[in-house]
């Protein structure tokens, strides 16, 4: 597993882009606390172009907080956060809005607007940009087809199941072809079949558009699936990579007690000597 | 212990006032800066304005009626029942119309704004909106303030006239006095300063209702329980502030027109 043959076209892309381009997102010594001890302290990592980073950690460790820091929904107490090369830790809210439009975010509970239909939810940004109605309908249908939910077009979120809501949220994040994706536990609390459907969507987005992303998950098996599968355009399905190869652009971060405990590849993760990491993997 | 908690509460109060002032100021500036969400404004106007018509009609009518009832007894002892119309019209236009409408609409809409925005906060819909690059202050708060000011203005006028009608009803059918005299008295007694005073007040009340409702809604923390707390705070403080603002506007108006 150490000397990895490039896993299809994707592996090679990564090697190229990683070395030549600045990171899309970069945390440097970020600390944040609410009342009480710091939730995150001195956290540093980067997301390079084309890279998918999987953030692991026990419940309540601050994974959601970290994602919200990444697009300025929360502000750090200290440290620097660079998004698309711009420092956002101290940027005024008004200047953040244009940057956030370039990011797609899937919230832990979906966070769909329950007063709007699925169509209006998915098209939210396009509606704000006053895109013509016909074009919106077309793009929404396209996005809903991508997540396999065409039939929900004119339903309200309250009439959808949890898994469907999560997929609508993913469609909403994908529709404007973001330059960075933030997924907060997209499979949390779902059954294995629905989880696999969602992971397949994420793999598809990763391999079709190569959008850099930061993904939070509790389910270590989802993380492994992400590493060991790729999206086959001809079959239009997620297929396992040949034995012994993994997606090189998919790497891991692990948080524990507010600190970044691990930052590296799947190979390093499974061979880690850290007790906490080993315990987490079991 | 008690002293510590008093100090804590005082600090909390000062902080809240400071936060609210900033919020209110930013919301006010947004009233004049694009983008202005016209569709949201119309939607809110419908909810706030048309939805409040029944309560304004009823409360206005009966307030006018009770004014006529109360005053007739007192005025009769001076042999001045003829000025009932004047009394009702002046009281409705200057004080009770604006204040009562404000308090009624605050009970109805400050609460609904606080609970609606509060639920959006606890289900992360506000965060989702920000993440999609839309400013909740412009998208949610500004249209509500606009709509509340405009609608309260018209609702107050409606309520004023319903009050005069209510007074007329009591005067004619219960006190068996001359209706024509009532209306001509009412009409003659109203001067520009009175009308202006009565129409400036709802502008302030409308702003108070929407800004306080939205402020407490957006400040919600702590799940569904927090939404309940936010709703209570919004209704209580907006009602109190409407009456406080009424006092100051009256004072200023009397000063200007004296
Ligand atoms: N807005 C907030 N105000 C106060 N405390 C907060 C806030 N957001 C998060 N916290 C605290 O930060 C800590 C981390 O929360 P976070 O939601 O990031 O956990 P998480 O890693 O996403 O957990 P889970 O896996 O259960 O989603 C928690 O202790 C939480 O109480
Ligand atoms: Mg979380």
CATH class of the largest domain in chain A: Alpha Beta
CATH topology-level fold name of the largest domain in chain A: Rossmann fold
Order of helices and strands of chain B: HHHHHHHH
Q: Quote the beta fraction of chain A.
A: 15-25%
Assign an overall shape of chain B: elongated
Structural class of chain A: alpha/beta
Integer tally of domains of chain B = 1
Mean pLDDT of chain A: 84
Largest interface: A-B, 22 and 13 residues
In words, what does this structure look like?
The complex is a heterodimer of chains A (282) and B (258). Chain A has 282 residues and is an alpha/beta fold. Chain A folds into 2 domains: 23-102 and 179-281, Rossmann fold; 110-177, no CATH class. Helix content of chain A is 37%, strand content 22%. Chain A contains 11 helices and 12 strands. Chain A has a 6-stranded mixed β-sheet with strand order 6-7-8-3-11-12, with helices on both faces. Chain A has a 4-stranded antiparallel β-sheet with strand order 2-1-4-5, with helices on one face. Chain A has a two-stranded antiparallel sheet with strand order 9-10. In chain A, helix 6 (133-146) crosses helix 7 and helix 7 (162-174) runs parallel beside helix 8 (192-209). The longest helix of chain A has 18 residues, at 192-209. Chain A is globular. The two termini of chain A are 20 Å apart. Mean pLDDT of chain A is 84; it is low at 1-19. With 258 residues, chain B is an all-alpha fold. Chain B has one domain (37-256). In chain B, 88% of the residues lie in helices and 0% in strands. Chain B has helices at 2-30, 38-77, 84-122, 125-131, 136-174, 179-189, 192-218, 223-257. In chain B, helix 3 packs antiparallel against helix 8. The longest helix of chain B has 40 residues, at 38-77. The A-B interface holds A 68, 71, 73, 93-94, 97-98, 100-101, 103, 105, 107-109, 111-114, 124-125, 128, 172 and B 120, 123-125, 127-135. Bound molecules: adenosine-5'-triphosphate (ATP) and magnesium ion (MG). Magnesium ion is lined by residues 63-64, 108, 184-185 of chain A.
């Amino acid at each position: 597993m150490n000397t990895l043959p490039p896993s299809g076209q994707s592996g090679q892309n990564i090697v190229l882009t990683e070395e030549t381009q600045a990171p899309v997102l970069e945390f440097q010594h970020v600390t944040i606390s609410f009342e009480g001890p710091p939730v995150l302290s001195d956290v540093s990592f980067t997301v390079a172009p084309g890279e998918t980073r999987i953030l692991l950690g026990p419940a309540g460790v601050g994974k959601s907080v970290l994602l919200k820091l990444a697009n300025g929904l929360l502000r750090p107490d200290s440290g620097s956060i660079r998004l698309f090369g711009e420092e956002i830790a101290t940027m005024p809210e008004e200047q953040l809005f244009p940057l956030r439009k370039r990011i797609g975010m899937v919230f832990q509970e979906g966070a769909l607007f329950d007063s709007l239909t699925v169509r209006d939810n998915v098209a939210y940004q396009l509606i704000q940009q006053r895109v013509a109605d016909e074009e919106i309908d077309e793009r929404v249908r396209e996005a809903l087809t991508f997540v396999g939910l065409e039939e929900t077009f004119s339903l309200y979120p309250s009439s959808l199941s949890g898994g469907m809501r999560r997929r609508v949220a993913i469609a909403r994040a994908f529709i404007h072809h973001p330059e960075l994706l933030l997924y907060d536990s997209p499979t949390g609390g779902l059954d294995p079949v629905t989880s696999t459907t969602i992971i397949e969507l994420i793999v598809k987005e990763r391999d079709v558009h190569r959008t850099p992303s930061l993904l939070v998950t509790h389910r270590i098996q989802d993380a492994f699936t992400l590493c060991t599968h790729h999206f086959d355009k001809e079959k239009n399905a997620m297929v396992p990579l040949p034995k012994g190869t993994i997606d090189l652009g998919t790497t891991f971060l692990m948080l524990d007690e507010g600190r970044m405990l691990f930052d590296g590849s799947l190979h390093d993760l499974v061979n880690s000597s850290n007790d906490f990491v080993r315990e987490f993997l079991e | 212990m008690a002293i510590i908690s008093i100090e804590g509460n005082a600090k909390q109060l000062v902080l809240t006032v400071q936060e609210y002032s900033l919020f209110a100021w930013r919301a006010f500036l947004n009233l004049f800066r694009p983008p202005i969400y016209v569709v949201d404004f119309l939607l809110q106007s419908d909810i706030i304005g048309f939805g409040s018509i029944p309560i304004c009609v009823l409360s206005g009518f009966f307030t006018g009626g009770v004014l006529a009832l109360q005053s007739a007894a007192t005025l009769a002892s001076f042999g001045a029942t003829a000025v009932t119309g004047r009394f009702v019209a002046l009281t409705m236009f200057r004080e009770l119309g604006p204040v009562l409408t404000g308090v009624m609409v605050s009970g109805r809409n400050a609460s609904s704004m606080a609970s609606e925005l509060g639920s959006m906060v606890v289900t992360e819909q506000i965060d989702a909106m920000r993440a999609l690059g839309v400013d909740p202050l412009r998208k949610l708060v500004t249209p509500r303030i606009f709509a509340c000011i405009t609608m309260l203005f018209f609702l107050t006028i409606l309520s004023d006239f319903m009050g005069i009608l209510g007074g007329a009803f009591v005067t004619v059918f219960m006190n068996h006095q001359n209706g024509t005299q009532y209306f001509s008295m009412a009409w003659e007694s109203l001067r520009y300063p009175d009308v202006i005073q009565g129409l400036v007040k709802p502008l302030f009340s409308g702003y108070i209702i929407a800004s306080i409702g939205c402020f407490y809604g957006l400040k919600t923390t702590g799940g569904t329980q927090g939404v309940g707390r936010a709703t209570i705070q919004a209704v209580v403080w907006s009602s109190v502030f409407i009456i406080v603002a009424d006092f100051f506007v009256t004072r200023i108006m009397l000063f200007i027109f004296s």
